[in-house]
Amino acid sequence: MIRAAQDGNQQAQDALVAEYLPLVYNIVGRALNGHADVDDVVQETMLRVLGGLDGLRGPETFRSWLVAITMNQIRGHWRERASGAIPAGGGLADAYDVVDPGADFVDLTITRLGLSGQRRETAEATRWLDEDDRALLSLWWLESAGELTRAEVAEALELSPQHAAVRVQRMKAQLETARVVVRALSANPPCGGLRQITAGWDGVPSALWRKRLARHARGCSVCEGHWSNLVPAEGLLVGLGLVPVGAVLAGLVLPPDLVEVGSASAVSGASGDGSSGQVSARAQARRDRARRRRRT
Ligand SMILES: [Zn+2]
User: Fold this and answer.
1) Ligand 1 centroid to 192 CA: how many Å?
2) CA of 236 to the centre of ligand 1 (A)
3) Listed residues: CB within 5 A of ion ligand 1
4) Listed residue (77, 75, 95) closest to 86, CA to CA
5) Can the peptide bond before residue 189 be classed as cis, meaning omega within 30 degrees of 0?
6) How far is the CA of 223 from the centre of ligand 1 (A)?
7) Which of 63, 84, 126, 265 places its Cα 20 to 30 Å from the Cα of 112?
8) 255 within 8 A of 272, measured Cβ to Cβ
9) How far is CA 109 from the centre of its chain?
10) How far is the CA of 128 from the centre of ligand 1 (A)?
11) Cβ distance 216 to 194 under 8 Å?
12) From the CA of 217, how far away is ligand 1's center (Å)?
């Protein structure tokens, strides 16, 4: 399939996109957690992959090459945003552009994969990670789930396996702290001391509040118990699978015949998106645009 796609076979290229779209979507979705630009970054990544197939060394290196391109696109998105070309998350422009503000990637992960208990807690904790840690998490999550190898993760990060291991270790420590924060905030009955601290909090996860709440949980006799019985996250993620691609995104990058076949479950599960005529018209326009660009 990869060789045929390299030779310019349109059907093989469509099939390649259909097969790897969920992987790219899961990396970008988790790294950017529901930012309105997730679909754009995924679409741009797939276009770059198709446009760069000539430069691929061998079909066996395809997946790591694909993941590296995906990470490049994510870093490019951050750079554009840092330069002011894209509004930062949480701004007014974002609120206007998000199709369904309630459904960030964490929510999708929980509902589509049916997570509960410590799995759910871990998914919620990812909201509290720093941005670059969340990009690392998105790869490591897929490694733990069995979708990527450590070698692929290291290559995508442009790090040696040893250095990647150190980074993963650090990120996991932050994730563990974030899980305790999630536990403390959802404890019932809530801790009185914690309620006092969070009285001035706007409810948006941030590094500052992660540190504040974690500091409280370390010194509070009510909350300190949250640090125990944390099942190692990699064990929780084994075999979790990929969050299916939503109908809107599938419509943006795939020909219609492949949308029906390739993501039937996603279409049936996506009750909140793709239902309005406006969205599908927009999707159609962008799909046409994408296919034109692909041919040039
Ligand atoms: Zn407390």
Assistant:
1) 7
2) 26
3) 191, 193-194, 220, 222-223
4) 77
5) yes
6) 4
7) 63
8) no
9) 9
10) 18
11) yes
12) 6
Q: What pLDDT is attached to residue 293?
A: 55
**pLDDT (tens digit, 9 = 90+) per residue, 142-179?**
999 999 999 999 999 999 999 999 999 999 999 999 99
Cα 125 to Cα 54, 105, 142, 173, 177: the distances in Å are 40, 12, 16, 12, 8
User: Ligand 1 centre and the CA of 71: distance in Å?
Assistant: 38
184 Cα to the center of ligand 1, angstroms: 7
ipTM: 0.99
Q: How far is the CA of 219 from the centre of ligand 1 (A)?
A: 8
Residue 198 CA, ligand 1 centroid: distance in Å: 11
Cα of 191 vs centre of ligand 1, distance in Å, is: 5
Output the six-digit token pair for 111. Answer: 């509902």
Q: What is the CA(132)–ligand 1 centre distance, in A?
A: 29
Ligand 1 centroid, distance to 233 Cα (angstroms): 23
- Evaluate if residue 264 carries a pLDDT over 50: no
**pLDDT confidence bin for 268, thresholds 50/70/90:** very low
Ligand 1 centroid–CA 199 distance in Å is 14
* Cα 282 from Cα 288, distance rounded (Å): 10
Sign of the Cα pseudo-torsion (128, 132, 134, 140, in order):
negative
Q: How far is CA 68 from the centre of its chain?
A: 15
Which pLDDT belongs to residue 253? 83
Average predicted confidence (pLDDT) for the chain: 84
Taking the C-alpha atoms of residue 229 and residue 234, their distance in angstroms, rounded to an integer, is 14
Q: State the Cα–Cα distance between residues 2 and 63, nearest whole angstrom.
A: 10
What range does the domain containing 15 cover?
Answer: 2-295
Give me the number of domains the chain comprises: 1
22-79: per-residue pLDDT in tens? 999 999 999 998 788 899 999 999 999 999 999 898 889 999 999 999 999 999 998 8
